[in-house]
Amino acid sequence: MQVVIVKNAEQAGQAVATLIAAQIYTKPDCVLGLATGSTPIPAYQTLIGMHKEGLLDFSKVKSYNLDEYVGISYEHECSYHRFMQDELFNHVNIKPENTHVPDGNAEDIPSTAAAYDAAIVAAGGIDLQLLGIGHNGHIGFNEPGSEFIYGCHKVELSQSTIEANTRFFDSEADVPRAAVTLGIGSIMNARQVVLVATGEGKAEAVRRSLEEDVSPMCQASILRTHPNAIFVLDEAAASKLSR
Questions:
Q1: Please, what are the domains in the chain?
Q2: Is the pLDDT of residue 101 over 80?
Q3: Quick check: is 170 catalytic?
């Protein structure tokens, strides 16, 4: 794996966008695994700029998002369906039928989660999976626990995740308590994984991921076993690394 350290969040976004753009240039009909949250926004803004300048064509790209909350409407301002529309899809020429986000409102979530995994396989698998990292080391919404769960599944959110996501809602009480997420196996099956982390608040999770034993108590640590994983960090997120 590789670790790339840049000065700030803006440069981290530019670096990630360069990797995604390179994937699209190399394979115009590639399958992207996309992430939400505040950390990927600079990368999405850079990609939008490249598209508007005529440098990047999304017309053949397919995307599969990592996760979605359970129990909020797609139109809710905090849903990940809405986030992707606002932050990327509405600003590039990706076809709506080629964008996919897990269904957090399905009556039978296990069945729809399995179908989501199957759709990714049918599309040829994810070429590049973009990830953020939670303060507790989660990737997607795979929370710390006793095991790595392979496939897409419903997960109960930890208290630390609920507290971290409160900033996007009116109050902590409004934060959903569950989500649907790609499993660790689904993430690890991607041909390339790019994790981006910025800010001092992510420094401890980054340190645990890169320097402690691989363990489901820090789900991101499994990425050290991936044959083509890149951590893109700003100086603040890398500040607790010992080497």
A1: 18-127+134-202 (3.40.50.1360)
A2: yes
A3: no
